[in-house]
Amino acid sequence: MFEVLTDSFKTAVNKIRFADDEKSLKKALDTLKKSLLKADVHHKVVKDLLKVVETETKVAGIGQVNFLRSLKDNLTQTLTAPGNQGFVYASQAPTRVLMAGLQGSGKTTTTVKLANYLKLRQKKVLIAACDLQRLAAVEQLKQLCEQNELDLYFDDKEQNPVKIAKAAVKKAKDGLYDVLLVDTAGRLAIDEELMQELTEVRSVIEPDEVFYVADSMTGQDAIRSAGTFHDKIGISGVVLSKYDGDSKGGVALGIAKQINVPLRFIGTGEKVADLELFVPDRIVNRLMGEGDLETLAEKTSAIINEKQAKALNKKIKKGEFNFNDFLEQMEQMKKLGSMKSLIGMIPGLSSMAGQLKDVDLENSVEMKRIKAMIGSMTKKEREMPSLLNNTRKRRIAEGAGLSNMDVNKFLKQFKNASKMAKKFSGKKGMQDLQNMMAQAKQGGIPR
Ligand SMILES: Nc1nc2c(ncn2[C@@H]2O[C@H](COP(=O)(O)OP(=O)(O)OP(=O)(O)O)[C@@H](O)[C@H]2O)c(=O)[nH]1
Ligand SMILES: [Mg+2]
């Protein structure tokens, strides 16, 4: 996600690796300045950041350690604005969130992503369809909610979004929902009528949070429009959408300082799992290429339920791991989001993320083949991989429209996967994994 920025920081820090004099500090600062400006970080933000880093490093003594410490501290400061971090639940449920933004900025998609994010964390979430401007808007939400098994409040007969909002709040209260997310129509701040409507929806919702969804592909305009909305109606957080399409990425670095509102989430793709929490100190670690184990752990624990994990462990130990389990694991992996973003969170491996092609688990040719092969197996075969003799293998290959070689290759992969799973399933396995992580954190794994 932050490959370009991470590279810039690394290059800059390396400039004072060998010499601890003012000249090398200047070189490092110049390099950083150039790359941050190129990444579209606002010039004032860059100037302020580098000025403090320069002063602090000089006072502490020029050297890589002091430079890095000062850079990290002040970068965290730059990314921080008054208000909440991450998703914060109100003291009284339901937590009400109003989603606002320009047309096509990604409000509806982000609303669904956020609902899914909260649902994975065991929250009961209701979405309200308050966009009555665009004809297909309610239909879009209906489909997205159905696909992702999310609750939606809508009223096809009602024309007034304020009334829908009111009814949605009632439903959220009566239904004991933890969170209510209100999707609204896209609008320009200069459109007085629509801004008035938004203000009215706002007053019946009484939101705990107003999230402004800004399209990061529009660069500094995204920040400007967020600022205008903040002045007119007051927002408590920004979500940057379409960050995957923004090759520069600097918008995420400047926004908190520029409008004094915290960035809370980043949208990194069209799929429902493509939403990343934005917590300044964790993000700074990632920006420095040091990974973010906290977010990774939080992400996996939201997906992997302890009971299921135990049952699976038992199966693996008994050597009963089968094709159904394999498919199920693949499904779980999908919920974690893209491989690229996961790799970026592992210390020592983050530099790999940039080189990695983003593997789309669901749509990769490999995955389609595997699904076809498992689909050609009988119920018994799926449960007992040891049944597969040559005759059966040939039948499976034919059924899947593939060659015997493909089937053999897959079976070999499957065997390896079960072996790996067995290795890591016991107590010792966890220890091994933790050691590996610790090693990686100390830079033990070659970069
Ligand atoms: N690549 C990418 N596409 C995104 C992301 N977020 C949204 N989109 C796409 O952007 C387009 C517009 O998204 P919507 O969620 O419909 O935007 P909206 O703000 O609700 O639009 P209106 O309701 O018409 O104002 C869709 O094609 C989404 O798939 C993202 O993080 N990455
Ligand atoms: Mg919409």
CATH topology of the largest domain: Rossmann fold
Structural class: alpha/beta
The gross shape turns out to be flat
> How would you write the strand order of the largest sheet?
3-2-4-1-5-6-7-8
Query: How many strands?
Result: 8
Number of helices: 21
Taken together, the total number of domains comes to: 3
| CATH homologous group name of the largest domain | P-loop containing nucleotide triphosphate hydrolases
Rounded mean pLDDT score = 85
Main CATH class of the largest domain: Alpha Beta
* Uncertain parts: 443-447
**Proportion of beta-strand residues:** 5-15%
Q: Which CATH architecture of the largest domain?
A: 3-Layer(aba) Sandwich
Q: Largest beta sheet, briefly?
A: 8 strands, mixed
Pattern of helices and strands: HHHHEHEHEHEHEHEHEEHHHHHHHHHHH
| First-residue to last-residue Cα separation | 18 Å
Could you characterize what this model shows?
With 447 residues, the protein is an alpha/beta fold. The chain has three domains: 3-78, SRP54, nucleotide-binding domain (Four Helix Bundle (Hemerythrin (Met), subunit A)); 95-288, Rossmann fold (3-Layer(aba) Sandwich), CATH 3.40.50; 296-441, 434 Repressor (Amino-terminal Domain), CATH 1.10.260.30. The chain is built from 21 helices and eight strands. An eight-stranded mixed sheet has the order 3-2-4-1-5-6-7-8, sandwiched between helices. Strand 5, helix 9 (220-233) and strand 6 (237-241) form a beta-alpha-beta unit. The longest helix is centred in the C-terminal third of the chain and has 22 residues, at 404-425. It is flat. The structure holds guanosine-5'-triphosphate (GTP) and magnesium ion.
